[in-house]
Amino acid sequence: MKKKKFTNQFIKAGYIFSISLLILLCYSCTEKKVEKPNILFIAVDDLRPELGCYGNRDIISPNIDRLANSGIVFNNAYCQQSLCNPSRASLLTGMRPDAIKVWDLGTHFRSVVPDAVTLPEFFKNQGYRVEGLGKIFHDNMGDQQSLSHPQKVLEGVSGYPDTTMQRLLRHKMKEIQLRERGVPENQIPGRPRVASTMCVDDPENNFMDGALTEMAIDFIKEFDEPFFLAVGFYKPHLPFVAPRKYFDLYVPEKIPPAKNPFLPEVSPDISMNTMAELKGYADFTGALHPLKAAYHWSKDKC
Asked: If DSSP codes are grouped into helix, strand and coil, which group holds residue 288?
């Protein structure tokens, strides 16, 4: 992929947080009022509202704050289900996970409600050109019916530095070779563990979100008709990989801990996140189970 200088200003804040934040806004190249305003829909994966516009003064998020100041900030947010696919499918169809029978990461909502009209599809039906970039529906589970053209796939970019990606690719090739030789699955080595947090010196457009931003800017410059452009950023979903300049904004020792790290008093143990995903990374293999950690926190509190 040809490398280009990274010039965007619309997503330079916010790599290291978690919960889904979705922003819908009108975009127009001129101040002239138009009958059909252009729509830019931005989805950010696993972003908590730990931002300046939500009152957090420890987070440096000038661009998201500027965006928030030019529109409406909603202070009450609700999660349809604590998984990516059900929540995205629910938001984009306007139907509850129970209604579309999507409770996991592998079920496509159209297998149950094939005639559902999604948010982007609604605009498509109103004569808009609808394009999607990145993670709008879950991962590669797109929905062509919602778009005017097949979604473009970025090539030559990933969520890891080149050295880590090469290591993972070598393992993948070894896996394929072992399966071709008939080696039983339980004898095939698991995916190598990598660090959950990586501070890298690579340019932003080496990674998915930087490249997506450049592609989105190019799309906006190209459009000459009313458009609905959905852009889905992958970070700050694990692993926490970002250029060094973002890490340099913070002094770890000055980041305050959570004000309330305790479990709700009446919550059942089964409701506690086991941190299984995070513990799959090399730097968290020895982490305590959250319930054990919570027990120690409670002792300290007493």
From this structure: coil
Mind telling me the catalytic residues? 84, 138
The residue count of the chain comes to 302
pLDDT of residue 269: 78
- Residue 248's contacts (CB-CB under 8 Å, 6 or more residues apart) are none
270-290, pLDDT tens digit by residue? 777 788 888 888 888 888 777
Is residue 151 packed enough to be buried (19+ CB in 10 Å), middle (13-18) or exposed (0-12)?
Answer: middle
Q: Which residues contact 281 (CB under 8 A, 6 or more apart)?
A: 193, 194, 195, 196, 238, 239
CA atoms in the 13 A half-sphere facing the CB of 59: 22
Concatenating the DSSP letter of every residue in 60-74 gives: --HHHHHHHHTS---
Q: What CA–CA distance (Å, rounded) separates 263 from 298?
A: 9
pTM: 0.80
pLDDT of residue 189: 85
Q: Which amino acid is at 91?
A: L
Q: How many angstroms separate the CA atoms of 213 and 243, rounded?
A: 15
Q: 128: which residues sit within 8 A by CB, 6+ positions away?
A: 36, 39, 148, 225, 226, 227, 228
DSSP strands (E only) in the chain: 21-27, 38-44, 129-134, 197-200, 227-233, 240-243
What would the two tokens of residue 179 be?
């399966």
Burial group, residue 132, by CB count within 10 angstroms (0-12, 13-18, 19+): buried
**Residue with the two structure tokens 């932003």:** 204
Contact 197, 148 (CB under 8 A): no
